[in-house]
């Protein structure tokens, strides 16, 4: 959800629907220069995440870069950092980062050895997939992860080559998640409160659930799970308007904000009974006026569904 679930999203979501237990910042890529860039600090500045439990995710394959970044994050006040080994994006994988490391044990093992050979004041967790192209790869990955003192391991039970297609490989997750001595979390295809209950029922010892696209589709998902109310149309309208305003301020451009909001609506429309012709009008909007007219038509002609539909299978 890089680029969409920014500080703008975190702030607006927490204000309207109540904060999540944790928000993860995707993605921070440390370089050989031991200093965060101004752009990175616009996400990492503690003042911009006040009152929220925020966990930065690092994309790196160099232990020395992880080392300085983890220390800098601790100095900023963060208590946990997450090493992302799950991102399947081509630009990330090509640099042997994210899930690109899952097929390169000659890089992954020295990375983890280097990270955990140092003493850290900050907790370190990992987000991973099952492997690159074969579910049998996870046995070796699990054995590797078990050698380190992780704060938690969050597993998205797909392979890199799966991208986001098909069903999660829950049988592989089920066969392995109780083998670890550290806490294990689950991520993948959680869109409704039914999905949450079924996942926790099947895997009762999970330490946490990570939700990405499902929370964009239904920003009240956690509130509903905690016996709160479903999102009203007025709340969704307020949410989308404040996101648009926030993105416009962050980008310094309403036109760029429109492009980001189209990505948001790709998920949000799965909570609305919107006709295809209205959705197409939204995605074809070329300027702010066309965008606002399309959104208004959607609100006037759509109802909120009881639960979001799972309507995406390809990464944006």
Automatic annotation (TrEMBL):
Alphabetically sorted, this entry's keywords are: Flavoprotein, FMN, NADP, Nucleotide-binding, Oxidoreductase, tRNA processing
Gene3D superfamilies recorded: Aldolase class I
Q: Where is the DUS-like FMN-binding domain?
A: 1-293
Which residues make up the binding site for FMN?
57, 127, 156, 212-213
Under Pfam families, the record lists: Dus
Task: Cite the EC number.
Answer: 1.3.1.-
One GO MF annotation is: RNA binding
The cofactors required by this protein are: FMN
User: Is-annotated flag, keyword NADP?
Assistant: yes
- Annotated catalytic residues: 87
| Family in the record | Belongs to the dus family.
Function, as annotated: Catalyzes the synthesis of 5,6-dihydrouridine (D), a modified base found in the D-loop of most tRNAs, via the reduction of the C5-C6 double bond in target uridines.
Q: What is this protein called?
A: tRNA-dihydrouridine synthase
Q: What is the lineage of its organism?
A: Bacteria, Pseudomonadati, Pseudomonadota, Betaproteobacteria, Burkholderiales
């Amino acid at each position: 959800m890089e680029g969409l679930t920014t500080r703008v999203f975190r702030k607006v979501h927490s204000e309207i629907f109540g904060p999540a237990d944790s928000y993860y910042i995707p993605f921070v890529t440390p370089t050989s220069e031991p200093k965060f860039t101004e752009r990175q600090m616009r996400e990492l500045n503690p003042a911009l995440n006040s009152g929220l439990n925020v966990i930065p995710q690092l994309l790196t394959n160099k232990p020395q870069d992880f080392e300085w970044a983890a220390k800098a994050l601790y100095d900023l006040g963060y208590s946990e950092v997450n090493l992302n080994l799950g991102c399947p994006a081509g630009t990330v994988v090509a640099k042997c980062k994210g899930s690109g490391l899952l097929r390169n044990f000659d890089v992954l093992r020295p990375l983890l050895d280097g990270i955990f050979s140092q003493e850290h004041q900050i907790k370190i967790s990992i987000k991973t997939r099952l492997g690159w192209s074969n579910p049998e790869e996870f046995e070796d990955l699990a054995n590797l992860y078990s050698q380190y003192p992780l704060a938690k391991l969050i597993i998205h039970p797909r392979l890199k080559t799966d991208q986001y297609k098909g069903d999660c490989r829950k049988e592989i997750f089920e066969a392995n998640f109780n083998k670890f001595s550290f806490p294990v979390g689950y991520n993948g295809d959680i869109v409704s409160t039914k999905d949450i209950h079924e996942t926790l029922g099947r895997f009762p010892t999970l330490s946490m659930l990570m939700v990405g696209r499902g929370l964009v589709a239904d920003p009240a998902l956690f509130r509903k799970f905690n016996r709160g109310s479903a999102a009203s149309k007025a709340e969704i309208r307020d949410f989308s308007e404040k996101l648009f305003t926030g993105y416009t301020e962050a980008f310094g451009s309403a036109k760029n904000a429109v492009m980001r909001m189209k990505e948001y609506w790709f998920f949000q429309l799965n909570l609305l009974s919107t006709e295809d012709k209205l959705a197409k009008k939204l995605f074809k909007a070329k300027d702010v006026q066309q965008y606002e007219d399309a959104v208004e038509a959607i609100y006037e002609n759509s109802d909120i569904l009881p639960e979001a539909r799972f309507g995406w299978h390809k990464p944006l």
